[in-house]
Amino acid sequence: MPEDAIQAKDYSRLIGMKGFSDALLKNHFQLYQGYVKNTAVLLEKLNQLVAGNNDRTPEYAELKRRLGWEFNGVLLHEYYFENLSETALPGQSSSFYQAIKKNFGSFEAWKQDFISTASMRGIGWVILYFEPRTGKMVNSWINEHDAGHLSGGYPLLVLDVFEHAYMLDYQLDRAKYIQSFFDNLNWQAVEGRFSKAAEGSAGNLPLRGPGGN
């Protein structure tokens, strides 16, 4: 395996987290690892097609289209796992908290909007984005891994609302799952992402490494 090949991260520290059974988390980790494996395979196959001057073929085009789905499946799960583990609420004097108030009027109004977005019918992701050029924050619904993202937006908080994220423990009670998600939020990771986004620009923000990792 090349030194720079994409590899799965270890999130076993989340085992035992309140509100999430070990079975659910292990299943979720396995699904994430599948995205990592598929991304690595796709990147290798695409490199081989380019090296063999076969990059103007239907095979190349279909693999290239698939890459966005698999690669974002990796990144979004990493954001999700890394903004979990129980911590206190964000400090009201923090720059992140103040930015939330500026954009939504209050922390409570932001949370209500985030939960309402997460409660919509359908499966996908809910992401609190920060747009570094304007300082605007938006709670956004993403149907598919590779479609619907806000251009230039930096993910601060990511919630998985695909059924595999909660059905084993909560069946159809998504509201209880969302509450457990909030009960286990790692606000330090979220604040760290905000600090990076606020200090950077749309052109040089890191693709990987959410939460300082």
Task: Give the helix/strand layout.
Layout: H1 22-51, H2 58-82, H3 95-104, H4 107-118, E1 125-131, E2 136-142, E3 154-160, H5 167-170, H6 174-183, H7 187-199
Antiparallel strand pairs: 1-2, 1-3
Helix pairs in contact: 1-2
What can you see in these coordinates?
With 213 residues, the chain is mainly alpha-helical. The chain folds into 2 domains: 22-82; 95-203, minor pseudopilin epsh fold (3-Layer(bab) Sandwich), CATH 3.55.40.20. It is 49% helix and 10% strand. It contains 7 helices and 3 strands. The protein has helices at 22-51, 58-82, 95-104, 107-118, 167-170, 174-183, 187-199, and strands at residues 125-131, 136-142, 154-160. Strands 2-1-3 form a 3-stranded antiparallel sheet. Helix 1 packs antiparallel against helix 2 (58-82). The radius of gyration is 18 Å and the shape is globular. The model is unreliable at 201-213 (pLDDT under 50).
